[in-house]
Amino acid sequence: MGKLVEGVWQDVWYDTKSSNGKFVREDAGFRDWIRNQPDAKFQPESGRYHLYVSLACPWAHRTLIFRKLKGLEEHIDVTVVCPDMMSEGWQMGLPEPLFGHTRLHQIYTEAKPDYTGRVTVPVLWDKKHNTIVSNESSEIIRMFNSEFNHITGNTDDYYPESARELIDEWNAYVYPHVNNGVYRCGFATTQEAYEEAYNHLFESLDRLEAHLAKNRYLAGDSLTEADWRLFTTLIRFDAVYVGHFKCNKKRIADYPNLNGYMKELYQVPGIKETTDFYHIKRHYYFSHTGINPTQVVPKGPELDLESAHGREQL
Ligand SMILES: N[C@@H](CCC(=O)N[C@@H](CS)C(=O)NCC(=O)O)C(=O)O
Prior knowledge:
Blueprint: E1 3-5, E2 8-10, E3 49-53, H1 58-69, E4 77-80, H2 104-111, E5 117-118, E6 123-126, E7 131-134, H3 137-146, H4 149-152, H5 164-179, H6 181-186, H7 191-214, H8 225-241, H9 256-266, H10 277-287
Parallel strand pairs: 3-4
Antiparallel strand pairs: 1-2, 1-5, 3-6, 6-7
The structure holds glutathione.
Glutathione is lined by residues 1, 28, 54, 57, 59, 118-122, 135-138.
Active site: 57, 183
Keywords: Transferase
Protein name: Putative glutathione S-transferase
């Protein structure tokens, strides 16, 4: 694990000293947008963009889900990195197809030779301008949701105008307390920072459980972006976050509504295929040697994701 400093790779762990043991996530460095507009620099085109992902990563998982749901698989190709993220950061098992690189940081310096920042997945690459469009998953999924509709013919909308306010509210709540909350637990380096994150996380899961007892989805009667953003954390929770990140007050399996909801989303056609528990468990338990020095990867838990979710009556 490390970062680029003026284009040079340095093997350093997260700095939590300057924040009293708290994990503070760095903002993504590339924030351009693909827009279906005549004057846009990045226009939607079939075959023009390439996506670098890790199957372990909940943020990258969002982009794979949207690529699947929006029928973009034949239009945007993908490189999957190896699950182990060690001293060289994310690496490719085989040279990736665009440049033949085997390290993700080389893709960042292709885009910006003097880049300073963390080298994260997902990365959306533009083959035309030879640069990174975006490495911010929340923005990549918005582009996938709407900007390629004329190419795919798929007009399903996970960020509909009528529900935007609610979706934004849920995102703003779920991101710090749940999506990033599990990392704030796992990467905390003081007891106090950990307990604060743990309390926020489980208060939030209780609130979500109560909401989902009465509502099938987060923002209304249909699945939206807010649900998919929550899903990628929930599906990793019992396999990794409970043990590795010490989020162990309860498992998702112990919350009837959250569990049924998670299973319903997992069972949406195509989603199971984007979920890889080998990569998920291997990445966290093997890569974070500061948390798990033996690098032993647990065999369990046995997860029941295929049984009836029982959410139809809502
Ligand atoms: N804001 C980014 C966060 C992405 C992110 O932090 N990805 C993790 C993997 S789960 C990563 O690549 N971490 C490498 C690092 O921090 O050095 C997004 O949502 O796209």
